[in-house]
Design a protein that fits this description.
Blueprint lengths: L20 E3 L2 E3 L7 E3 L2 E3 L2 E3 L7 E3 L2 E3 L2 E3 L12 E3 L1 E4 L17 E4 L18 E2 L76
Parallel strand pairs: 1-4, 2-5, 3-6, 4-7, 5-8, 7-9, 8-10, 10-11, 11-12
């Protein structure tokens, strides 16, 4: 049986965000490219199967919200805040997260996050689990005590990154230089952990 494509909609549904505050609201199977929202607050809302590609969300506030089976690729979150937000099985490709407000608390499960930017963000305790994280910038990011289990970090940049007590269990394809990242107390799994020795030219046979 062929699985349905969760990111395809038969047609775009018209939706008008005519309120400044939404609480415990479900937004389901809405497709709207180039959506523009400004100064709207969402509290404890659920976004299920929405397609907001290239959306511009300006000065919006998201708190305790869940995004599931949704596509927000190349969205622009200028001056928007994300507090206790979870993305589950979402496409979040090409997003510059440095434009969001601080502090930030976001978690990712089974998401595609390729070509995104988290430069210098404080992501302590963040969960990035079973995600595709290719070509992502984590330079100078604080990922201490983050849980990065079973994610694929191919070509992602960890430069001067705080990885204190970070959990990389079952993560793959990461390239980390212990000389310029703090990895004290971090957890790694074999055989991927052997890549940490590459910086010293050490080969284990």
């Amino acid at each position: 049986m062929t699985e349905p494509n969760l990111f395809e909609s038969e047609k775009e549904e018209e939706i008008v965000f005519d309120k400044q505050y939404y609480e415990e609201t479900v937004f389901e199977k809405i497709a709207k490219q180039n959506l523009i929202l400004e100064d709207i607050e969402f509290y404890n809302c659920r976004f299920s199967g929405v397609v907001f590609i290239k959306a511009a969300l300006k000065s919006c506030r998201f708190e305790k919200c869940l995004f599931v089976n949704s596509d927000l690729s190349v969205a622009n979150f200028t001056n928007s805040s994300f507090t206790d937000i979870k993305f589950d099985n979402c496409k979040l490709i090409g997003i510059d997260w440095t434009k969001i407000c601080r502090p930030v608390k976001i978690d990712f499960l089974k998401c595609k996050m390729n070509d995104s930017n988290f430069f210098s963000l404080d992501l302590r305790g963040t969960e990035i689990i079973s995600c595709e994280v290719h070509n992502v910038d984590f330079e100078k990011t604080n990922l201490s005590k983050a849980v990065l289990n079973s994610s694929d970090f191919m070509h992602s940049s960890f430069n001067k990154t705080n990885l204190t007590s970070t959990d990389f269990t079952e993560a793959i394809n990461y390239s980390i230089d212990p000389n310029n990242c703090n990895i004290k107390g971090a957890k790694f799994s074999l055989p991927e952990a052997l890549s940490l020795l590459d910086q010293w030219g050490i080969k284990v046979t």
